[in-house]
Design a protein that fits this description.
- The protein is mainly alpha-helical.
- It has a single domain, classed as Up-down Bundle (Four Helix Bundle (Hemerythrin (Met), subunit A)), CATH 1.20.120.
- Helices cover 46% and strands 8% of the residues.
- Helix 1 packs antiparallel against helix 4 and helix 3 runs parallel beside helix 4.
- The relative contact order is 0.17.
Length: 205
C-alpha cells in the first residue's frame, strides 16, 4: 500500500526525530542539526534518574511509593512513573529523563495498540523501565509499533474520527491525522527536553 501523500512528510519527521533522539541518548555520535556529527557519550543509569532540583517527578519502585506531589505510580512491573489524576499540580513538577522517556514510550506503544492492537491496554499495563538499557529497548519497541501503524494508514483512516481509541488523550474525538501530528510534536518536544537535560547533567557542578 502506498502512503497517502499528506502522511509522507509526517512520517519523515517522525523518523528524523526518532533517530536524533536515540543517537542523542545512546551515542556514539549524533547529528547536530546541520549535518555535522557530534560525539555523544552513552547515558548512564545515574543520569537517567538525575534530579536537577527538588520535587522532581521520576520513575520509582512501587514499593517506595510516589514522589513529591504525586499521588500514585502508574505502570506494570517493579517500577512506576509519578503522576496524579487530573488536574495535575500547578506549576507542573520538573521531570527527569526517566519520566520523559517512559512517557514517550508508553504513549507510542499504547496508541499503536489502540489503532492496530487489542484496543484495551492502559497505563497500568505498560512496563516502566528503571534503567537506561531497558528504557531504550522499550522506546524502540514503541516507536517501531507506532511506525507500523503509520505504514498501514490510508487516506480514509487519516480522516476518520476515533481511528485511535487511545483513552489518555482526545484521540476518540479527533481525525487521525491530528493524532499523527500530535504524536510527532510529543516526540519533538520531549526529545528536545531530554537533550537539554543531558547537557545540564554534563555541566553540573
Amino acid at each position: 500500500m502506498s502512503l497517502p501523500e499528506r502522511l509522507v512528510p509526517l512520517l519523515d519527521q517522525f523518523d528524523f526525530a526518532r533517530k536524533r533522539l536515540v543517537d542523542r541518548m545512546a551515542g556514539p555520535v549524533m547529528d547536530s542539526g546541520n549535518g555535522t556529527d557530534v560525539t555523544v557519550g552513552p547515558m548512564t543509569d545515574e543520569e537517567y534518574v538525575w534530579e536537577p532540583g527538588p520535587g522532581c517527578w521520576s520513575v520509582r519502585r512501587h514499593v517506595d511509593g510516589p514522589g513529591p506531589r504525586a499521588t500514585l505510580l502508574v505502570g506494570a512491573g517493579a517500577w512506576g512513573r509519578d503522576t496524579t489524576p487530573p488536574p495535575h499540580p500547578t506549576p507542573p513538577p520538573f521531570t527527569t529523563v526517566a519520566w520523559r522517556l517512559n512517557h514517550l514510550s508508553e504513549l507510542l506503544a499504547l496508541r499503536a495498540d489502540h489503532v492496530n492492537g487489542s484496543r484495551r491496554l492502559t497505563r497500568d499495563d505498560f512496563p516502566v523501565s528503571g534503567d537506561v538499557a531497558s528504557a531504550l529497548t522499550a522506546f524502540d519497541a514503541g516507536a517501531t509499533a507506532w511506525r507500523g501503524v503509520l505504514l498501514s494508514t490510508d487516506d480514509e483512516a487519516l480522516d476518520t474520527v476515533g481511528h485511535s481509541s487511545y483513552p489518555h488523550g482526545s484521540d476518540p474525538e479527533d481525525p487521525f491525522i491530528e493524532v499523527v501530528w500530535w504524536v510527532n510534536q510529543e516526540l519533538l518536544h520531549h526529545g528536545a527536553e531530554i537533550a537539554l537535560l543531558r547537557d545540564l547533567y554534563r555541566l553540573r557542578p
